[in-house]
UniProtKB/TrEMBL annotation:
Residues 1-41 are annotated as: Disordered. This is Trafficking protein particle complex subunit 12. It comes from Aspergillus lucknowensis. PANTHER family: D-ALANYL-D-ALANINE CARBOXYPEPTIDASE, TRAFFICKING PROTEIN PARTICLE COMPLEX SUBUNIT 12. InterPro entries: TPR-like_helical_dom_sf (IPR011990). SUPFAM superfamilies: TPR-like. Residues 24-36 have a biased composition (Low complexity).
Amino acid sequence: MALIVPASRPRSSTKGPLDQPDDSLSTENSNNSSTLPTQNAADYGAYTGTSFRTLDPLAPEELSSGFEKDLSFLLRYDNYHSLSQVDIPHALRSEFASPKADETLASSLCTLERLLAEGHFLLAAYLCGAILTSSFLSPTDVQQVFGLFYTRLACLELSGNTIIAAQESKALEDLSSAFYYVSPAPKAAGADNSHPNYPRHIAPWPLRILAIRLQSIGFGDSRRGIGGLYEIGLEARREIMRPDLDPAEREIWRQRLSDLGIRTVNALIEMGDLGAAKRSLEGLKKTEPVNRTIKLRTILLLLSLGDVNAARQLCGDFGDTRDALFKPLLSMVEGRYNDAVLEWRTLLTIKDREIEDATVSQNLAVCLLYTGQLNEARNVLESLIYTHHSFSSLVFNLATVYELCSDKSMQLKTGLVEAIAKQPVTGHTNLDRFNADFKL
């Protein structure tokens, strides 16, 4: 059963109460450095197609002044895998969009922004590949090519196709090579010297971050990912220490460096080295301002390691409503599900807490399931569906409950698919779900 953090990524395996749910330590959730270039789903008509050029606010100035680099190696048709909806229930399928002969690049980019805002990540990945291999795109349009390539990889990962994304990321080859750096133009005497006088990387920061993880998967070398994170971490430190750096830019680099620390912990977890991940998190607590995010991640990691006493010590005073979720969590870890049921119910009555009702309710349903109250667990999960929640762990858990409490689970799960297909589009969840999400 999934626990704590709802997410939109498809899951295909049963989770237990000690398993970390839906990537609360994942790279996608660390900060805005890996956010897709999308707009709110409610802002229909606001799509301009320009967001793919603005992934990196600290991109080298040379990129906006006629800089050209031949990226035709990223536009080859054989770089991209064929995508299919055969594993998606019929009710959730939508037609793949492709650039038409009489369509402009700007129009295709607007369509892509709309798909992202709606949560059609598989469809968006398909359209990215179609645009990248079309005649619309110039191979020397560096910002546009990188923006679309990043969006393709991110959408593949968000739609549950991480292995495909890892294979396609190999097309970038070595991102630390001299090819990806641009030297600053010579400055005249007396000119402004506030800008760096050393080569700058031309790939947007989010793409570099994502490519490090995907290439480590694609090449089957987890140490490659750790090394890549440390390498760009040195770059971030160098930028932070620049005396001429604008305070706003320095803050962005500080956020990036902090994000790299969390990503390093995540990489160690994916390697299975939980001990090193724990030490890294402890190191972050010493170098980073104490915040709830790092605290929550540390507690979840300690619980995964089975170090309940250390987790309890870190939880501190449960009177703080911001930390109120730790108490039922610890009850679940210790197998006291009846106590956890009462504690989750109590948490639902707290109005000034940060955790969402849907998250609390799902965990309440998990505890009800473990205490044998199947019908009530089903009612709680179905009530979330009725109120238009459909994150991946909720769907998977409800499908599991259907299997446990009815001989007609297939019909119930099919009905669940139909109900989710009729939900309004919010852009907060992945709409292109696999059959595995519904255990079909």
